Amino acid sequence: MKRKQAYLDNIEPKDQALRKVSARLKEVRKEQGYSSYEHFAIQMDIARSLYAKYEAGSDMKVSTLIRIVQGMGMKLSDFFKGLD
To answer: Model's pTM, two decimal places?
Structure first.
């Protein structure tokens, strides 16, 4: 039982993972010269309010994340590099 609990204690909560992804989205967007999420969302053909939610940590489809990352001109492996 202790072993199972130790395993469960080491699982990162979904919310923490989403916060890391959202922070990375914002970081890369700014690195690419988009000071405004709105301009970036328009460029990516994503509703501005929806993209704002992604940067705030809302859940999104994997296919949406892939489209955004590719639109940033990145590979998924590069996007996730350094995220634990």
So the answer is: 0.79
